[in-house]
Design brief:
Mean pLDDT: 75
Low-confidence stretches: 244-254
Organism: Halosimplex aquaticum
Number of strands: 0
Strand content: under 5%
Radius of gyration: 36 Å
Number of helices: 11
Helix content: 40-55%
Structural class: mainly alpha
GO cellular component, one term: DNA-directed RNA polymerase complex
Protein name: DNA-directed RNA polymerase subunit epsilon
Keywords: DNA-directed RNA polymerase, Transcription
Length: 254
Amino acid sequence: MNGGRDAADHGLQTSGEPVDPRAEREVSARPGDGSLGRIDAVKDEAFRRWDVTTPSATLIGRPENPDEDVGENLRRLHDEQHPAMAGHSERMHRLEKARITHAFCNTLGLTPWERDRALGIMTELDLTVFGSQRAIQKVGLVVIQHVVDDERQRILGLHDREWVAAQPPESLADLHERFDSIKDDPIYRTLLDLVGLDVTSVNRLHRTLQTQLDEQDLRGAVFGREPHRDPSLPAFQERDPTEVPGPSADDAAE
């Protein structure tokens, strides 16, 4: 019965009285106390003998020795200078234009037709003509503004200049009130501020865009749609919407 008390009196650990291990630890802040010992340093060196690798870092081919470089053909392939990689940067640039423009279209809630028109122009548009303002984000927003406003004008009939000229002032005022430009959208104005575009820059880019649409023949560009129809199929413009299709010649013969 007195064994446990005697052990406690002598400072020995018992199962009924656990001792905090931190109370027994000696803490020192002398120079060199925070460095690794020789054994620990060797262990760390053994684990770090090879460089850190990441799954996303991919290379084609390996050198014969770790200290050597790959062959000339493989090096040119990695640097996208090999003939097998010809046009890779252009394809990536085209995909980047489509990706950023598509994200803007989703943010602004464009219709599928407006989205395809904006993508059709952006993916084929040469951005070098826009000079220092040729960033994809800036030109993409201006292209979206052109497409959306143009489609909304077509819905109201404002693209028909002869018809507009024949309208009385009251009708013109009503059309002006009904026309809702995307420039009045607060989300669109927020995006313009984020990319660093003001009214003057937007107007300048829009004038350049209008010129390039004619020079690069992109007025009717639509992503995923070929402007040249299949000659084996009848054109939609030639169909009469009031005409009811009758039986074919084969049906009549039967």
